[in-house]
From TrEMBL:
This is Cupin domain-containing protein. InterPro entries: Cupin_2, QDO-like, RmlC-like_jellyroll, RmlC_Cupin_sf. The lineage of its organism: Bacteria, Pseudomonadati, Bacteroidota, Cytophagia, Cytophagales. It comes from the Bacteria. Residues 42-110 form the Cupin type-2 domain.
Amino acid sequence: MTINSIATIDQGEGQSLSVAGNSYRILISGEQTGGNYAVIDMLVPPGGGPGPHAHKDMQEMFYVVEGEIEFKMEGGGYRAQKGSLINIPLGGAVHSFKNTTDQIAHLLCTVVPAGLDSFFKEIGKPVEAGVFLPPPSLSAEELEKLKALAQKYGQTLYPPDYLG
């Protein structure tokens, strides 16, 4: 609900999507902020997380609410635990993350400017909050379509082994 341009989002509100086996809830979309930013609540199951990618014109910040995530970036890695913040500045640094534990990891992601939320809406499948669907198995043709769609939203996708 919006009150005098102040948005309030209750638990369970926001669009929930299954994206590559993860469960993402868009709390604030770019449509609501004039494209200035978006906030996404992310639940990442064991083994989940995106492959290496970069977005040179978007800053991305992750706050670990619960659990832990193994971040990989050019130049090394970082085990982010509850209370950690990861800031990926403008410029296109290649990064990825994976939940290497046996517990669900809970992240809060803010992107400036918005756009990642629109990408997720286009590739994700609507689900109930907290529902996980298995990651899709993509053919070579489907992978090329995904790469083209990622580029539409300012992202570059890299091979799974790009960061070692």
